[in-house]
Amino acid sequence: xxxxxxxxxxxxxxxxxxxxxxxxxxxxxxxxxxxxxxxxxxxxxxxxxxxxxxxxxxxxxxxxxxxxxxxxxxxxxxxxxxxxxxxxxxxxxxxxxxxxxxxxxxxxxxxxxxxxxxxxxxxxxxxxxxxxxxxxxxxxxxxxxxxxxxxxxxxxxxxxxxxxxxxxxxxxxxxxxxxxxxxxxxxxxxxxxxxxxxxxxxxxxxxxxxxxxxxxxxxxxxxxxxxxxxxxxxxxxxxxxxxxxxxxxxxxxxxxxxxxxxxxxxxxxxxxxxxxxxxxxxxxxxxxxxxxxxxxxxxxxxxxxxxxxxxxxxxxxxxxxxxxxxxxxxxxxx
Amino acid sequence: xxxxxxxxxxxxxxxxxxxxxxxxxxxxxxxxxxxxxxxxxxxxxxxxxxxxxxxxxxxxxxxxxxxxxxxxxxxxxxxxxxxxxxxxxxxxxxxxxxxxxxxxxxxxxxxxxxxxxxxxxxxxxxxxxxxxxxxxxxxxxxxxxxxxxxxxxxxxxxxxxxxxxxxxxxxxxxxxxxxxxxxxxxxxxxxxxxxxxxxxxxxxxxxxxxxxxxxxxxxxxxxxxxxxxxxxxxxxxxxxxxxxxxxxxxxxxxxxxxxxxxxxxxxxxxxxxxxxxxxxxxxxxxxxxxxxxxxxxxxxxxxxx
Lengths: 334, 305
What we know:
The complex is a heterodimer.
Chain A: H1 4-14, H2 20-29, E1 31-35, E2 40-42, E3 50-56, E4 59-64, E5 70-76, E6 81-82, H3 84-89, E7 96-99, E8 103-109, H4 110-119, H5 121-152, H6 160-168, E9 172-173, H7 177-188, H8 198-206, E10 209-213, E11 218-220, E12 229-234, E13 237-243, E14 246-253, E15 257-260, E16 274-277, E17 281-286, H9 288-297, H10 299-329, E18 331-332
Antiparallel strand pairs in A: 1-8, 2-7, 3-6, 3-8, 4-5, 4-7, 9-10, 10-17, 11-16, 12-15, 12-17, 13-14, 13-16
Chain B: E1 3-8, H1 15-18, H2 27-30, E2 44-49, E3 60-64, H3 72-78, E4 85-90, E5 117-122, H4 127-134, H5 140-143, H6 151-161, H7 172-192, E6 199-206, E7 210-215, E8 217-218, E9 239-243, E10 246-249, E11 252-255, E12 263-267, E13 279-280, E14 285-292, E15 295-302
Antiparallel strand pairs in B: 1-4, 1-12, 2-3, 2-4, 5-6, 6-7, 6-8, 7-14, 9-12, 9-13, 10-11, 14-15
Helix pairs in contact in B: 4-7, 6-7
């Protein structure tokens, strides 16, 4: 018997992501936990055993910051997910979550996500869509904070010559049959495809372009709203925030990793993360039109692909948080 | 793969870093948290600077090719010495009879003409092919000091050759320029020899007054066919934590928070399982920490070669 009050709360928050049937399944398969004010829900430095969704009450997000005491970062309310970064990236929680009032959370466990992946991948995808939206919101907030810092910072600006060269440097498609076969064979070995059927990989490759990009080639530019995804086969790609002709670097994406434009989950044009090769690289590009085609016509491939998109967004979230901390500690690029 | 630990700040009993924390430096030799598939069993070395010692600008140096966790002498010394700066290194090499495990190959390297020491975490691919082309970039005074077989000692010689002088007070820009010049030389010589395979160059450099560290890989993401399982293919990690002083506070080992940050640890991996008060340095980055009026100042810069 579904608790109608909880159903109503969740319906209010997840209405645009889950159908009523999917919501009922979510409630019936997962437990609800209650927390008294002051009680720790998730502890910084510990691994989260699931993704928590606040049903009632407010939750304080705090963090022990490097060289500082414990700081209050923000307050979250019903409809917000907790512990998603720890759960998806399998890393310790970057922050602590403490009940501010009486709180109720529904805890979506690893077993539940495995069950969804096997029997109801569409529900997992819908949940990940909601999580990705929240992650993008956080990236946007921290991005804007960093932009404000960069505006007044004495960070060195990019030399004009380098900027022009970078804007002229373009990737080229690999058409040589032998070279293509070698690179694609390498790609098929990647762990990120461990749950793909052979036919699914072939279908994905049919909608992709194999690229060779020189060093310092920008793949996703500032302000570009293009929902493409890339997989690094060889070489490396640097994610950065570019503002006022200054560059603040986030992290490096190496082989066997998918990265994606923010536009894959959030079409807000007010912020972009740029991606530029930092070594000569071989990449598989899945253009926006092909991603849309896969989404419309090959749902199961799309669901698996979206798992990787979600992982890349969570990694990006971690990187912007780290940059935010570093900018307050280090004399960076001056 | 190796492990490196460096410290600058308030004098600290060495055992607080080498033995006490739950992921202590010595523990990292036989149970490293990162890259656990290769243990660091090919030697241990430490250079430590103490203001109160004889000739305080020169470090106390201890090196052994033996296993440090069986070393009673090291354990005893660690419970007596309180330097304000140290650089410790655990050497980790692939399990092969081609590797040379000897005292001459133990880091940190410290030539007699200088008080600048260097330790390296990484490996230059095909080093034997390129090493003699490096000679032209090494000052004659340092060539004669290379006794070991590691690529690290050659990198050290190039670095020293590009400092304004072997002994002195260096500006942060001198330290950074010498690092960048060293990396550019490695890149140039590799290019000349058609070497374009992933080679990590995480360097730790100190003279007791500053610590500089890099997180860098030449040709990252390009592995050779025989390198698929190599520990040097992935991007080696680099972390730091800073605060008033390092010790056992609130039931855990950590940097004590305070407005004045007078101590810093820069290391290959955090000294505790809980990494919440540590920050990971991004790839392609170098950082320099200096003490200015008792306070740690950190300068960081992207490495764009």
